[in-house]
Amino acid sequence: MTHASKAENRPDSSPANPKALYGGTSSRRVTVRDIAAAKVRGEKWPMLTAYDAMTASVFDESGIPVLLVGDSMGNCHLGYDSTVPVTMDEIALLSAAVVRGTKRALIVGDLPFGSYQEGSVQALRNATRLVKEAGVGAVKLEGGERSADQIDLLVRSGIPVMAHIGLTPQSVNAYGGYPVQGRGEEAAQQLLRDAKAVQDAGAFAVVLELVPAELAAEVTRTLHIPTVGIGAGQECDAQVLVWTDMAGMTAGRVPRFVKQYANLREVLGGAAKSFAADVVGGLYPAEEHAFH
Ligand code: KIV
After folding, report:
1. Which structural domains are found in the chain, ordered by start?
2. Looking at residue 16, what is its pLDDT?
């Protein structure tokens, strides 16, 4: 049965599962135990990035159960041309804002490039900072087998970890771009080893970025932790998009795997132009906006 036909077959009137990550009735913060339970139920769930309190509050009120304060903030929020320059200070500041703006979503803070590659102790120091200073409920870091030691120490220290394998954007300089990963037998076997390594190290979920759909489906069937796909086909347990791509805020081309659900760039630009025209034409402020 395809993804589309599964959705079509779901009766609209069926009562929502009160425990569902999306559409459930619980208003307390989502935890990693809720995420694990969703995999057991076979429930799919959405995740978005967020970089500020106000946008995060919109997604939280919309029921998105997991928000990632991704280092994609480099490209989408801070004006860098990749995620590489993003610092711990920037992630900590924006993670704290997203936590303050939300009540229910599990907030995952991304560990930026250079904040965990030295080893487990460095990873623990920086992850602890995100948990204590920003109040995140979990952290994310890139790498499979190569990051297993870091994941292991963080998890043993009480910090839930979301892993990230396949295309790991912090390695853009090594890749020379953003190529699809896991193509060919050897690369596919490495991806499977990476997936098992992060699960064995204790990760509660794993992002699969830009990998062939068939391989992502195999990883999803093999693991008992949920897979979160981005450019990884239909079979992952969850799907994540960068919010500015999803809502049509990003300028220029977006990756082929992105579906744009709005054209916020046009809406916001239109609002700015209307405001400007009113100011120039003397229509704003009007009498009702004035104090006497
Ligand atoms: O930083 C980010 O937004 C991410 C997602 C694309 C998974 O890592």
Report:
1. 3-261 (3.20.20.60), 267-292 (no CATH)
2. 75
